[in-house]
């Protein structure tokens, strides 16, 4: 199988490492540093901007395209440029090739669900994005399925929960605090990549959506206390949502994030047979905790 990973960053690099043992893989980044990171990971790299169809000419034909580009944490306008305009450009570009891809996997976010007051959500739950950026992500999901389908490409939406793993454990945030109440829906980087690999290799998820999240949504206070105990430090200070929202300096986006609460189910992935390397945060944070206790974390 030939796979092109557009926006081959945090998850894409790990996906390329996993796939390249058995498949032909090319990673696409727009910066020289990004290309060097792909090459260091051990697979083919192409320097190209996913929003530029002329640049995409440099990307080899592929059986499957994974669109994992990031807007770099910027606002809704930048997100639209990448997730909507860039994704549409990629779909239209690859669809008219003499040897077009059969599949597209678009990596979205559980942020498209909005607030559910702590209730469970799954793939059947209606979307209710609460910010301009998550509205953009929901629009991109439609492109990945409907627009790709109109062009003869089977689209899959993989909705990632909060990513963590090497270089993204953020221990200090939770063991120093203060920690605001709510739920954490998480997935380790290696499993985020592993799920995409699983979808490709098992041919699961065509014209479908799947939630990519681990087994256990974690109450933030419980998670922080567990981390502190494991790291051998005092439990961090806590804040209720009401206490946090009383801060008049909060941005509108930060306020919406605090008000948004849900628990994401991975029942579909489990039923499909995916086997997690890190089924909960307890396994996933073990390496970071051991590093912290040795004194060489960060």
Q: What do the pLDDT scores average to?
A: 95
Q: In terms of per-residue confidence, which ranges show pLDDT below 50 for 5 or more consecutive residues?
A: none
Shape field: globular
Cα-atom Rg, whole angstroms?
19 Å
Distance between the termini: 37 Å
Alpha plus pi helix count: 13
The H-and-E topology, N to C, reads as EHEHEHEHEEHEEHEEEHEEHEHHEHHH
Helix coverage percent: 40-55%
Structural class: alpha/beta
Biggest β-sheet description: 7 strands, parallel
Beta-strand portion reads: 15-25%
Question: Order of strands side by side in the largest beta sheet?
Answer: 3-2-1-4-5-7-12
Instruction: Give the tally of β-strands.
Output: 15
Question: What are the main properties of this structure?
Answer:
single chain; 298 residues; alpha/beta; 7-stranded parallel beta sheet; two-stranded parallel ribbon; 19% strand
């Amino acid at each position: 199988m030939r796979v092109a990973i557009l926006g081959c960053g945090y998850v894409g690099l790990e996906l390329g490492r996993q796939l390249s043992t058995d498949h032909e893989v090319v990673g696409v980044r727009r910066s020289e540093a990004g290309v060097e990171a792909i090459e260091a990971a051990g697979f083919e790299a192409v320097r190209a901007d996913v929003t530029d169809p002329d640049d995409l000419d440099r990307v080899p034909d592929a059986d499957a395209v994974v669109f994992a580009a990031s807007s770099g944490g910027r606002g809704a306008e930048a997100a639209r440029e990448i997730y909507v305009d860039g994704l549409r450009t990629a779909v239209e570009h690859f669809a008219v090739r003499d040897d077009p891809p059969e599949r597209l996997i678009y990596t979205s976010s559980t942020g498209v669900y909005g607030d559910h007051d702590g209730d469970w959500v799954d793939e059947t739950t209606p979307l209710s994005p609460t910010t301009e950026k998550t509205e953009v992500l929901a629009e991109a999901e439609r492109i990945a399925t409907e627009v790709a389908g109109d062009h003869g490409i089977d689209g899959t939406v993989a909705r990632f929960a909060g990513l963590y793993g090497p270089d993204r454990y953020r221990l200090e945030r939770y063991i120093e605090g203060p920690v605001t109440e709510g739920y954490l829906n998480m997935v380790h980087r290696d499993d985020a990549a592993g799920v995409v690999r699983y979808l490709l290799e098992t041919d699961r998820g065509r014209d479908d959506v799947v939630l990519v999240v681990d087994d256990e949504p974690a109450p933030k206070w419980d998670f922080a206390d567990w981390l502190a105990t494991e790291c051998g430090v005092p439990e961090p200070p806590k804040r209720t949502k009401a206490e946090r929202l009383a801060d008049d300096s909060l941005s509108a986006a930060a306020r919406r994030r605090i008000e948004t609460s849900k628990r994401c189910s991975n029942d579909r992935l489990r039923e499909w047979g995916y086997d997690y390397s890190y089924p909960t945060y307890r396994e996933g944070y073990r390496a970071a905790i051991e590093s912290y206790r040795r004194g060489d974390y960060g």
